[in-house]
Amino acid sequence: RFPTIADAWTFLTDAKITTAATVTIQLAPERYDLKAPLRLDRADSGRIVLDGGRQPDRCTLVFSGSNGIEVHEGSGLTIQGLTVKAVNAVDRECIGIVVGHGAKARLERVNVEGFWAGVVAEDGGRIEAEQCKVETAILRGVGVGFQSHLNGTMALVRCTATKSKRDDNWSAGFVASTGGYLGCEACEASGWDHGFLSHINSCLWLTRCASKGNDSGLTATSGSSATADDCEFTGDAAWAVKAANGGTMLVRGCTLSKSAYGCCATSNSTVMFASLPSRISGCTAAAFQSKGGGTFDGLKPTLTDNRGEFKLFPATTPADQVFFWE
Question: What local confidence, expressed as pLDDT, does residue 268 receive?
Fold first, then answer.
């Protein structure tokens, strides 16, 4: 037993963990106020578990003006059943949980609240997460929920990213950026500038995910790719899905509804519809928008109750140079 989490963490920094051992830090269901990040950077820490119990909202780690949990330098850690919360963190661009430099982490039933960035895998770090939530109200400047960045890898199942107050700043619920890979299954984003974003030579894969009430549902841009299987994009203000600046996108069996545009392709980007038919409905501007050489290919979606079928820029662009339906 240790009087504080910081004392237990200090002990783990130097303790020897045998090959067959698993070390569990069992937290009592209460609030813990911490003045500095919990940082782990030992190679044998993959057998360490930080456990807050079955109900994450009853065990809360509160960080004031700093990152929350940091896992680096080939380390490994399992975090389960707790909430990581920030106060005074937004202006300082603090991160709730960051895993980098070849480290890995497993998150189960973890909530992250109030940070500039919720959960980040960067510099070759890897995160697997299930039933986790990132929530925030106001983000000044760039803000993200879950992010794989700089060759980071992230695999998420049944995770949600929610921004409860909209502003004019750039933000993204789930983002793969600068060579990152992000796979999402049954995940949901709401209230962001971008619900799901693949940016700068990155890869994003969505299966049975949902985007609700974002400015853009799914975006692939700057040489990145995105694949969406059996997903729902509804009520996203500008576009349900968009490929831009050389991005490519594959859409299979998805529902795109109640946006200004269902699908947008700009600046020599391509959106491919394949395999199972997709559906585009209720768009207030048009089902398709093309600018600067953006094209659409594959199996034409089913279109219902849209204001128009397409808008092309420039308007003199022949439709047969934009649409290549089977």
Answer: 93
Q: How far apart (Å, rounded) are the C-alpha atoms in residues 36 and 28?
A: 20
Q: Is 11 helix (H, G, I), strand (E, B) or coil?
A: helix
Token pair for 123: 């510099």
What are the phi and psi torsion angles at 210 (to 5°)? -140, 135
Cβ contact 86:114 at 8 Å: yes
Query: First-to-last CA distance in the chain?
Result: 67
Q: Give me the phi and psi of 58, to 5 degrees please.
A: -95, -15
| Tokens encoding 44 | 């044998």
Could you list the beta-strand ranges (E) of 187-278.
188-190, 194-199, 203-207, 210-212, 216-221, 225-229, 232-234, 239-244, 248-252, 255-257, 261-266, 270-273
Task: Give just the sign of the alpha carbon dihedral 256, 261, 266, 272.
Answer: positive
DSSP 277: P
Q: Name the CA dihedral angle for 207, 166, 62, 87, rounded to a multiple of 10 degrees.
A: 150
221 burial via Cβ count (<10 Å: 0-12, 13-18, 19+)? buried
pLDDT in tens, 158-208: 999 998 766 667 899 999 999 999 999 999 999 999 999 999 999 999 999
CB contact set of 320 (below 8 Å; sequence gap of 6+):
none
Q: Letter for the amino acid at 53? A: G
Q: What is the pLDDT of residues 243-258, one digit of tens each?
A: 999 999 999 999 999 9
Tokens representing 13 are 């920094």
- The structure tokens listed for 199 are 């940016």
* Range name among 85-89, 138-142, 182-186 with the lowest pLDDT average: 138-142
- Euclidean distance between CA atoms 179 and 195, whole angstroms: 19
d(CA 260, CA 236): 8
CA-based torsion, 52, 56, 62, 66: positive or negative = positive
Strand, coil or helix: 300: coil
